[in-house]
Q: What sequence folds into this?
């Protein structure tokens, strides 16, 4: 198969590495890709949200399957354009991608399908939103209704924090169009996990689960980010619990989407909270998560490309999804200043030495080559340093050993990725 992978992050590097192992792969093109994906296929200078450019590239290269990585091209209608051009695409239509493109749409689907989720209200102006949080009190969660690259959610522990989030999004326009409307939710309490499945119509096939670490600082301090690291599988949330969560949070959504005439086909990423009352939905995303994908895909033993081809055909019968019984971890190395204004241009060295350690994988995200050919930082989240092990403790030690070998003075990272999961394992062992 000739495949076009869309995107340029660590997620796409991990997806490219998984697809490169498939005996069905004839040629892999990545648009726009990064220096890491360049070692696995052909990078193409087409932006991920340039739908017309992507279709032209797919036609030029006789692409059999388009695999979207990020959400933006899906919300912009990439799958619809592929269908019109007669090209298979492993992603949802624009209408179905509204599950990620609009928080309000997701909440309406949940209410219609009886999916447990936090109580919510939508606001199109700042004044009534401010009045609501003053009457409701804290904690609350303030969400930009539209796409905000993982930065549109504020867990406000005080009324003042909620007021600031509303003002930033709705009055000051810090998130642009995405924050012109907001959804304000009750704050769910529990452990947050990420659940993934391949979907086609009303059928969902479990991929697996991971647990992200959203905040920038050790001990879950500081602002939310796109994700600073992940572990897979989450402690206490095994395959049986994952399947049960699909029955409650995903399959009813698929039936409701089909009933509306906008069936969902693609990868669903359900962010959920494991509360005392059972799992409740936080949000849907219509693609692999990042950094969860990096942690998940290094455990994958079956053929990712075959599964994605089945998604594109809308036929998941007999889809084979197998993961090793090992634990895995991803540790994000970000640039100083992230998630605000990251310091770019710093030279990154010793990636080869880090990647040569046993069971270590280093995926590139915000990187590029400078005029001298040096690898430099070119974004906020720059590297995903990942490892597997027979235990989470072993995987964690390997990943942090690799982090320690990387020479990048401008790099920052959390030192406690996986510690919460290890503590939970220890607690379970004592009970």
A:
């Amino acid at each position: 198969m000739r495949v076009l992978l869309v995107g340029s992050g660590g997620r796409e590097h991990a997806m490219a590495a998984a697809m490169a192992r498939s005996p069905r792969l004839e040629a892999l093109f990545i648009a726009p890709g990064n220096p890491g994906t360049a070692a696995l296929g052909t990078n193409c200078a087409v932006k991920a949200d340039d739908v017309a450019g992507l279709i032209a590239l797919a036609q030029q290269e006789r692409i059999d399957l388009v695999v979207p990585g990020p959400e933006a091209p899906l919300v912009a209608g990439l799958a619809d354009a592929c269908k019109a051009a007669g090209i298979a695409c492993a992603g949802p239509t624009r209408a179905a991608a509204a599950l990620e493109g609009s928080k309000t749409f997701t909440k309406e689907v949940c209410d219609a399908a009886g999916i447990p989720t936090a109580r919510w209200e939508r606001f199109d102006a700042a004044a009534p939103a401010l009045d609501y949080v003053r009457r409701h009190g804290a904690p609350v969660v303030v969400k930009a209704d539209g796409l905000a690259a993982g930065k549109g959610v504020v867990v406000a522990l005080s009324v003042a924090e909620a007021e600031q989030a509303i003002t930033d999004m709705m009055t000051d326009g810090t998130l642009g169009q995405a924050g012109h409307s907001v959804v304000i939710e009750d704050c769910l309490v529990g452990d947050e996990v990420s659940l993934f499945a391949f979907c086609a119509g009303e059928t969902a096939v479990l991929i697996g689960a991971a647990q992200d670490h959203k905040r920038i600082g050790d001990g879950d301090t500081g602002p939310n980010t796109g994700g600073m690291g992940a572990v897979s599988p989450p402690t206490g949330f095994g395959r049986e619990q994952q399947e049960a969560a699909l029955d409650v949070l995903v399959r009813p959504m698929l039936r409701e989407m089909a009933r509306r005439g906008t069936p969902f086909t693609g990868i669903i990423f359900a962010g959920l909270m494991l509360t005392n009352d059972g799992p409740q939905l936080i949000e849907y995303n219509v693609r692999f998560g990042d950094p969860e994908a990096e942690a998940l895909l290094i455990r994958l033993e079956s053929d990712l490309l075959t599964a994605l081809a089945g998604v594109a055909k809308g036929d998941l019968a007999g889809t084979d999804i197998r993961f090793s019984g090992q634990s895995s971890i991803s540790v994000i190395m970000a640039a100083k200043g992230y998630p605000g204004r990251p310091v770019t241009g710093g030279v990154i060295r010793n990636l080869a030495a880090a990647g040569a350690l046993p069971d270590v994988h280093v995926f590139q995200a915000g990187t590029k080559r400078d005029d001298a050919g040096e690898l430099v930082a070119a974004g906020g989240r720059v590297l995903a340093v990942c490892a597997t092990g027979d235990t989470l403790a072993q995987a964690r030690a390997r990943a942090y050993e690799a982090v320690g070998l990387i020479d990048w003075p401008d790099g920052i990272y959390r030192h406690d990725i996986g510690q919460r999961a290890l503590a939970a394992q220890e607690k379970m062992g004592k009970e």
